[in-house]
Amino acid sequence: MKRILSGIQPTGHLHLGNHLGAIRNWVRLQDEFECLFCVVDMHAITVWQEPAELIANTREVAMAVLAAGIDPEKNVLFVQSHVPGHAQLAWIFNCVARLGWLNRMTQFKEKAGKSRENASVGLFAYPDLMAADILLYKATHVPVGEDQKQHLELTRDIAQKFNNDFGTELFPIVEPLIFGPATRVMSLRDGTNKMSKSDPSDYSRINMTDDAELIALKIRKAKTDPELIPDSVDGIEGRPEAANLMGIYAALADQELEAICAQFGGWQFSKFKAELSDLAVARLGPITSEINRLKDDPAYVDGVLRDGAERARAIAEPVIEEVYKTVGFLTGNG
User: Fold this and answer.
1) Residues forming beta bridges with residue 142, ordered by sequence position
2) Which residues participate in catalysis according to the annotation?
3) pTM for this structure?
4) 3 — phi, psi (to 5°)?
5) CA-CA distance, 62 to 43, in Å (whole number)?
6) pLDDT for 265-294, tens place per residue?
7) Residue 293: how many other CB atoms lie within 10 Å
8) Are 250 and 182 in contact (CB under 8 A)?
9) Which of 17, 123, 139, 255 is positioned for an S-S bond with 46, CB 3.0–4.6 A?
10) Strand runs labelled E in 52-140
11) Residue 41: its pLDDT value, please?
12) Which of 268, 93, 250, 259 lies closest to 170 in space, CA to CA?
């Protein structure tokens, strides 16, 4: 059996980068794997979250996932904090992982910046919780972007060390699913920075809730250079904004970048942006409409998440029981 676990943080509006880098791939994987998709609110609080906003964002992320095409009957969609096993297994992994392993995690260094001493312990131990998310369900595969690849390698190290320490084969050595182009969508205002929810400029990203008019406006205002669109991929070298917009078009059109160069080579960017706007609206419009419909039916969304949590717990609880016995905890079952 091939099983996938993947998660997404409820930290503000989802944007085009989240859709192309993760959610769209989830939709495609649901016919090939047994899938568990998780709104990782426990990861979100590694940095401060306003409680009311966290609740609203958790629902909004769930709505966006459903609107994009995830089938809640075929897959398990749930909220991380609704399954106690995530925290239970994360603590055990805190005792398995080595301090030196976590010190090598580049993402902590980037997020903590110069405030390393003021960063939360949770932010430092984030990769251990990520390992628990995955191994709690004995997932065999995890779709990850390049920025999460190091954390997945740590998950493999933790699984291997646990198995070796206790002379067991309890945890699988999970395999990454790393997708190619368009897993890194960059800011519309700066092609050298990743599209982000935390960017102060709303014009840096296309939100999944933006209407057609706003999508077109943001693309029209997106930063470009004065040169024409190149007719080969080699011509994009050193042109981050051009590469970003052309990469977005390629991803939305499900084409290789070479084909986009062949189609639009020699065009002015003003003309190309009009084509990109039409394509983005066509692809995102139905998702936005469904998000708006689901906003009017929060009881349905909460019901999906409640059912998903029950199904996730049914998988997780026997694994926790097995782990507890392996570690030497006295369990309720003796």
Assistant:
1) 176
2) 111, 194, 197
3) 0.89
4) -125, 135
5) 16
6) 999 999 999 999 999 999 999 999 999 999
7) 12
8) yes
9) 123
10) 76-79
11) 97
12) 93
